[in-house]
Write a structure and sequence with these properties.
Helices cover 58% and strands 2% of the residues. It has 348 residues and is mainly alpha-helical. The chain folds into two domains: 22-76 and 327-347, no CATH class; 90-317, Growth Hormone, Chain: A (Up-down Bundle), CATH 1.20.1250.20. It has a two-stranded parallel ribbon with strand order 1-2. Residues 328-348 are annotated as: Disordered.
């Protein structure tokens, strides 16, 4: 850690130091507050979030030079468009919450499954149950390399897109991979439990079911492909489509989705424990052979299918933001002479 800290400090002369330009949250609140104050004003004919445009409508005395206008009463068009761009990406972002919900307990259940399966590589060595996640990680590493080196150049020939496919298309493919992952997980669990029943091992929670643990590899690999497409695609989408002044907030949304998805996943498991009863519990604590883990996977698959339809609708309605040309010289909206850039606002 000490060596890393020294290396970190040694690069400080190369850092590009930018003066603080104010909180982006304040900018958002100012635009909304100005729009509310001018809710009765006549806005331009723009079908996208029309009411926010009212924040940039200039009324008498609001833009008298040389005194700068009150940004709580009059917002620049640039700030209004920033907020509109940010709000437009939220429905697409929300699709990532249920993705995390579907995967929030997969590692725990996969480890439980692996513990009951034949993990021998030789007569004296067994794979630790939790180490099955290795296959998902390897898939991500290899998948990312192949995606950039092979898939992008190949897709570029047909799409003429420098990234191969759009961010939304990449995210959609990732959602499909995750649906396929849970379908495979349900089928494998059904197979594992059937083998346990055929060998009269259902009532023995410590018994090793004679089925190879490598049956779990496909679902781990498919989950890895989900991260290659959906997770990376979502990060790129949030960074690219968010306004320049709000990119830190947009990337924070990624972790908010992770948190919300994990909470929802825990809530869903609690509901399953509560409503599937004590004897027929889908997710028993001690004996997985008596459970219905495959039912849980099918439930998650259904939720993901609904989420995929929602994502497709949001993607269909989404319009990518145009290339930004920052009309404000600094983050707080003032140019170097201390004047506010209102030339576009006056045209509203």
């Amino acid at each position: 850690m000490a060596a890393a800290f020294i290396v970190f400090l040694s690069g400080s002369p190369l850092y590009k130091k930018v003066k603080p330009g104010g909180s982006p949250l304040v900018r958002v609140i100012q635009v909304i507050f100005a729009a509310i104050r001018k809710r009765k004003a006549v806005a331009p004919e723009d079908p996208s979030l029309l009411w926010l445009d009212k924040a940039a409508v200039v009324k008498n005395g609001e833009a008298d030079y040389p005194s700068p206008p009150n940004l709580w009463k009059l917002a620049t068009v640039h700030r209004v468009e920033e907020l509109k761009s940010f709000l437009r990406l939220l429905p697409v972002w929300a699709a990532g919450i249920l993705l995390v919900t579907a995967n929030s307990h997969s590692n725990s259940f996969n480890t439980q499954q692996a513990r009951t399966m034949d993990r021998h590589l030789s007569s004296s060595f067994q794979i630790p149950p939790a180490s099955m996640a290795f296959f998902g990680i390897v898939t991500v590493i290899i998948g990312l390399a192949l995606y950039e080196r092979l898939f992008v150049p190949f897709a570029r020939r047909f799409t003429r897109n420098s990234a191969g496919i759009t961010y939304l298309q990449r995210m959609g493919v990732g959602l499909l991979f995750n649906i396929l992952s849970t379908v495979v997980a349900a089928l494998v669990e059904k197979k594992r439990r059937t083998v346990a029943e055929n060998h009269n091992l259902v009532d023995n929670p410590k018994a090793i079911v004679p089925i190879s643990v490598f049956w779990l590899v496909p679902q781990h690999s498919l989950h890895g492909m989900t991260e290659v497409f959906m997770v990376v695609g979502q990060l790129e989408f949030l960074y690219d489509q968010s306004p320049e002044s709000m990119r830190s907030i947009a990337l924070g949304l990624f972790w908010i989705a992770n948190s919300a998805g994990n909470y929802l996943g825990t809530f869903m498991v609690s509901l399953i424990h509560q409503y599937t009863g004590h004897k027929n519990n889908w997710l028993p604590d001690r004996n997985l052979n008596k459970g219905k883990l495959d039912y849980y996977y099918w439930l998650v698959t259904g939720i993901q299918a609904v989420n995929f339809v929602y994502f497709v609708i949001c993607s269909w309605c989404y319009s990518y933001k145009p290339l930004e040309e920052d009309s404000e010289a600094t983050e707080d909206g003032a140019d170097r002479n201390g004047k506010i850039e209102l030339t576009t606002a006056e045209k509203v």
